[in-house]
Amino acid sequence: MASNEKTRSVRLPNIVEALIPIVVMMGLMIYGLNFSGGGYVDAHMPLAVSIVVACIIGCLCGHSFSDMLAGMIDRLNATMEAILILCTVGLLVASFLMSGTIPALIYYGLNLLTPQLFLPVGCFLCAIVGLACGSSWTATATMGIAMLGIGAGLGIPAPITAGMAISGAYVGDKFSPLSDTTNLAAAVSETGLFDHVTAMVSTTAPTFVLALIAYAILGVVISNGNYDPTVATDIQKVIASGFNINPFLLVPILVVIIACVMKLPGLVGVTISVVTGVLFAVIFQGVGSLADLFDMLHYGYGFELEEAQVAAMNLTSYLAPSGEMTNAYETVSSLLNRGGMDHTMGTINLILLAVAYGGALERCGCTEALFGKLKSKINSVGSLILATMATSLFCDATMCDQFLGIGVPAPLYVDKYDELGLGRNMMSRTLEDCGTLWAAMFPWTGCGAYQQGVFGMSPFTYFPFAFVNLLNPIYAAITAFLGRNIFWADGSYTNILGKTKAGKPAGAPAEAHEKAVKNLEARRAAGKAPKISA
Question: What is the helix (H) or strand (E) element at residue 487, kind and residue range?
């Protein structure tokens, strides 16, 4: 058997073979979402079938099943920490709900925010939490849920609020040195972490400012006639009836931030935050039974009031974004009945299948077959940036995993970045500009599925309002084609005005850096790259 493995002839799939597992997956997803009559709309079974198809293609190309399995397991091993964090995030949400932390954020937020300021201020706050946590998932699961409640009280449609929270959370995630995708992009590009973060500022900061302006304008437009102050007051009544609300309940949020400032490992920081939430639930909300604590941490928090309590409040009915009549109690219940480890199991199942599928495609060479020949046609910075982002988007949409959207294009194009005299942080920035930000657009990716679970709506519903995620790749591509916003191998930077200033070179392997600098000098001599301004 061993000799057969050694003599087995392995080849890359042809274009048709490479597309088969992708077409199968996309076809089954389109059927479920549009033509099944609502009978089955999840991504789990399409992915399971597509894994089988990808393995068959791999075997036809000479791989053994054990080799294909090894490819899937390699990818799964690389994402196990993220999966464990997802389990603890479920615990974190439950603990922050039963302690009253998230309800307190909603309660006080309704006092501090106006309809006009809610969107830009909320986006900024979500960015701060994302930066502190190093996780867009944690930011949306805590601050994002709170914002959804505050937005409901201010008359802001839920998809707009969700898009705003997504934008802020991903800005913070991208700039955080604790973020898994930030570290991954720097690692696969073989550049320094803070070189990478510095490069990301050049595209994410401008789009963040544009998004804040857009949210401010949108807030003014929406606030004209939609805001009913009785809704906010009723939401506060319901929360105050179900929780002991006081400012100390905001301390668990500070614990999350302190843990991140201390640079504790992600799992350790989240675990400490969960313990804090549990202690606050015992101290302030009177949860005294260990069985009750375990039940809520496992299955999620259940918010419920007695019918007599609800009737005594005389709550005003109002038209929900769904078009149905509702009241503050139903709104609060829909927001606070969530969390728990069990609540994340469906998402974890999806992520396991998505990563295994991506690993199978990667091992049998589908991506290399589809994009490998594209490199020979790339001869400019703009076309390289566009090709990198297109490959990232393709991997996000077809491999269902943002880690593959970052990790797969890197080895495909790294020599092209050196050939054009670009800095390695230019590649790392580009991988995140699309691979991270647009991964939340598809309901069948791990990111999209998670955010759909948090906000209770399809990514197709909220993504048009996630202005940072939407605009960042577009801004990066346009400026690259205009010859602006470019980091070069010698450390120089061409700014948005077209001026090239000297700077410190980004981290890179010594041999690759030397090669890239020589290529840059040759391109400058030929007039194909800008010279450093005096």
Answer: strand 486-487
pLDDT by residue (tens digit) across 8-54?
688 989 989 989 998 888 788 777 766 777 677 677 888 899 899 99
Q: Which domain holds residue 493?
A: 375-525
pLDDT digits (tens, 9 = 90+) for 293-330: 999 999 988 888 888 888 888 887 765 555 567 787 88
- For 501, phi then psi, to 5°, come to -115, 145
Cα distance between residue 393 and residue 371, in whole Å = 12
Q: What is the distance between the alpha carbons of residues 181 and 200, in angstroms, rounded to a whole number?
A: 12
> Which tokens go with 48?
């399971």
Rounded Cα–Cα distance for residues 48 and 198 (Å):
40
pLDDT tens by residue, 246-284: 999 989 888 877 876 676 776 787 788 899 999 999 999
79 touches 351 (CB < 8 A): yes
Ordered alpha helix ranges (H), 155-265 = 158-175, 180-189, 193-226, 229-242, 251-261
Q: What is the 3-state secondary structure (H, E, C) of 139-173?
A: HHHHHHHHHHHHHHHHCCCHHHHHHHHHHHHHHHH
Residues listed for the chain: 534
pTM, entire model: 0.71
13 inside domain:
no
Strand partners, 500: 494
pLDDT of res. 3: 44
496 within a domain of the structure (yes/no):
yes
Nearest-angstrom CA–CA distance, 422 and 486: 8
The Cα 182–Cα 403 span in angstroms is 10
The answer for residues whose C-beta is within 8 angstroms of residue 54's C-beta and 6 or more apart is 21, 68, 357, 360, 361, 364, 366
**Range ranked top by mean pLDDT from 284-298, 364-378, 404-418:** 284-298
Structure confidence by residue, pLDDT tens digits, 76-118: 886 677 677 777 878 888 898 899 988 888 888 778 777 888 8
Is 515 part of any domain? yes
412 domain residue, yes or no: yes
| CB proximity list for 239: less than 8 A, separation 6 or greater | 103, 106, 107, 245, 332
- Domains identified in the chain, total number: 1
CB 387 within 8 A of CB 378: yes
